Amino acid sequence: MKKISVMMLVALFAATTITTGCFSKRQVVKANTPPEGEKQDDDSAFTAREEITKTYQLPANAMVGVYSINGAIDVTTSDSDQAEIHILRLARTKDTFEKQKAVIKFNDNELKIYGNQRDREFGIWDHVTGDDEVRTRVTLKLPRKIEFHTWRVNGQVKLGEIEGSVEAGNINGKLLIAKAVGSVNFNNINGKVEAGIANLNKDGIEIHQINGNIDLKFLDDVNANVEAHGLNGRVNAEIPNVKVEKQERQYYRATIGSGGPEISVGRMNGNLTLLSAGQTAKGEKQAEPETSPDTNKKRVVDKIAKELHAK
Predict the structure, then answer these.
(1) Which residues, 6 or more positions from 183, have their beta carbon under 8 angstroms from its beta carbon?
(2) CA 162 → CA 143, 145, 199, 208, distances in Å?
(3) Any idea what DSSP says for residue 44?
(4) What is the pTM of this model?
C-alpha cells in the first residue's frame, strides 16, 4: 500500500510539473499579454481587419435575415429598393478570416447574411483561448417594405422603421425597433426590448424567454388580448381602454379595446409596459434634444448675466 501511495504522489507531482511547464511556455511565447494570461477584452488586440460592401436590389416585401453575429447590428430604412450592406470584421490574425467566413446569400426575394461560417480547421485550444474570435459590426441600409429576421447575435440590434413583421431570437443585448408592422416574434433575449408596433394583424405578438424589461409602443389604435404567464415582474398598461381580467403572481390577462389579436408573453424576468405613441415608460426620461456648442455657450452667458443681475 505504501509503494502504491508513493507512486501516486510521484505521478501527481509529475503531472502538475508538466502542466505548469506547458502554461508557462505559452505565456512566454505570447508577448505583451495581460496579467495572469487574460486576453484583452477591447478591440485593440484585434488588429486584423476585413470589410465587405455589397449592394442588391430587393423587391417589395422581401425577407432579410442576419444570423450568427458577434457584435452589433444597425439597420436604417428608406423608400429605396436598394439594400446596402457594410460588414466590418475584426480578428487577431488574418488567418482567422480564411477559417471563419462571412457569407451573403441572395435570390429574388431573400437576402441572408451569416456572420461566421466556421471552418473545422480550428482546434479546441483556439476556441478555448479565444484566438478564433471574430468581432463583427453589421450596418445595413434597407428598403422599408421588408420582413426582417435575426438570430444568434451577441450585441445590440437596432432597427429603423420596417413596414413588415420582425422576428428576433437568441440575442445577448438590447433590441430596439422604431417600427414593425403586422406582427413581432421575440424569443430568448438577454437585454431590454423596445419596439414600436403599427397595424397589429391576426398573427399578433409572441414574446418568450426575455431577461429584461419590455416596452411595447403602439403607434395607432389597438384592439388586442393580452396574456402573460411565468412573469417575474409587473405589467404596466399605460394605454387607454384596458380592462384587466385577472392579475396575480406571475400571471396577467387583459383586453385592450374590443379585443382581437393575441399578445402572448411567457417566461419573462422583467417588467412589461404597454404604451401609446408619444408616451415614455414611467421612471424613464424623454431624450433631451441635441444642442450645438453655440446654444450651450449662450446658456452659460445667460446664466452668468442672471447671477450678476441678482447681485
Answers:
(1) 165, 200, 201, 203, 204, 205, 206, 261
(2) 8, 6, 12, 22
(3) G
(4) 0.75
